[in-house]
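Sorry to interrupt, but I need a hand with the structure work. Leave the record below and I will have a look:
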Amino acid sequence: MTRCVEAMSRVLFARRRVWLAGFIAITVILAVSSLRLGVDAGIRKMIPLEHPYMQTYTAYEKTFGGINRVLVALRQKEGDIYNANFFAQLKQVTDAVFFLPGVDRPTVTSLFTPNVRFIEVVEDGFAGGNVIPSGFKGSPEELEQVRKNVQKSGRVGRLVANDYQGALVSAELLELDPGTGKRLDYQKVAQQLEQIREKFATDDLRIHIIGFAKAIGDIADGARGVIGFFAVAFVVTAVLLFWYSGSLKLTVVALVCALVPVVWLLGLLPILGYGIDPLSILVPFLIFSIGVSHAVQMTNAWKLEVVHGADGLTAARNSFRKLFIPGAMALLANALGFLVMLHIKIDIVRELAITASLGVALMVVTNKMLLTVMLSYMTLSGNDVKKIRSKEGRDDWLWARFKSFAEPRGALAVLLLATLLLGAGAWQARELRTGDLGRGLPELRDDSRYNRDIAAIVDSFAIGVDVLSVIAQTRNVQGACTTYEIMDTIDRFENTMKNVYGVQSVLSLPGAAKIVNAGWNEGNPRWRILSRNPDVLAQAVTPIDTSTGLLNTDCSAMQILIFTRDHQGTTIAHIVDEVKRFNAANKTDRIEFLLASGNVGVMAATNEAVDAAEVTMLSVLFAAIGLLCLIEFRSWRATLCIVLPLAMVSVLGNALMALLGIGLKVST
């Protein structure tokens, strides 16, 4: 390996002008290419599509709808919704949502849409119609009629707030923009939703907006703050580098070479067909920080060579020979650390792994080759040399104290302290939970607008954006909707789930059919049951259309919608376990309950994918690092000295996450 490094050194420094010109040309080309870099935050990138839950979702996506919903809630500050001004605003907001690019228009639902109807029992049978009749002007008589229609429609808690002070507009978004045929730009949708808020919100009317697109937009807006942090970190790093190196030249060279791999990475991503998303936007900052650390090592080695009499070229050659192998090995270990994330079968994680490992790999070229070529052209002034020499030995007293830890007595104290820390960390790490912790979106602050909107909607309505969809799949059953045994099993499932902690409300076909059956019997609540007679059951089910999302066309699959109080990992896991428990006890060759769709179904699949991959990821990571250390040092003792502290850091990292209330998920 030493011969290989010698050969590389001769090739590199014999044609250093050519190499330098090539590096500059590549940097310019990739800098131009980086201008084409776009944001890519598709919802499917965040889904473990190979997970069994998501296979259920994809199988029934076209039948029961997708998972990308947006909810816009209008809420009166004082009084109820039954006034002309509120309904005028609700109508305008409904129209604004309807015409948003990317909205699946048949799914738009509000009191003003024709898919919201009421049915009532009258002397001659049934009567019904739209909750808000055509030609509605907002007169007192019309408002009173709408009030009655809302009560008859059963939409209180779903489209109208439980306290009658607010109303919802709901819509699903398409994956592709019908106008452009390209993937929907969620940041643009989020901006348009925010424009709706700004246009219609007043001192007396509050507007709350939640949904995947709005969340992505708010996260992206927050992620832009990373640029500011990057600038601050750059300045702080520059000051520390200048203080440490004692040379403005070395400071500038180190910073430039730390930035070059960032430019190369951002330029390569559009060439490779990748974009940047709210998670991978942190990768350039990470690459810069790693680049600075390696640049400091190389510039420091070069500086010491020059201070002790070597010229710039000789110092660069010697530094390259000394540091190329250990530096390249360290960067390779970093790259492997990111690549093990490929084991998590979620596209956004895999793209993050590829992006980060590519950026680290580029540093082998920029920080080991480009940097040494640049250093070979440099010299230190007499004043710089004097400064550096004057600093030598200034901090010897500090290191003299630290060296005692490398002696038996001091080492024993350190090992004892490390053991205590490891024990405490392992104990605390048991509290680490998979998934979200807390009520709102953990990527945003508790007091963020989005999290306040979530709280407002959950407190006012019996439904929210958090819904777990379970599919009751029948086999070889003709007319499953009119088969009592099938409907009764689903009804028992609904009642069971209503009593599970964390469930806010449940909607299913049997529940709706019981209401219709009571309607056929003069609204008598005693008839709110499922009849064993197939004809009577058919009479109760027939008015319920497939547009409700509760059944498919041939009734071979029925959807049960479980609205949850929050999307904490523990809540989701508990509800999913209860679904599995009921299915295990009641599954037959005629019916089974399949998990899962809805955004909570996606979270459940994601949490399980992350949880299952964690042990494998860490095992592969430490095995790879251990193998690299054995190759480099050819000593099992040296390998243990490197791997054990890293393992300790992993345990303490998990303990810190548990202590701070941070869950283990895709973004962490």
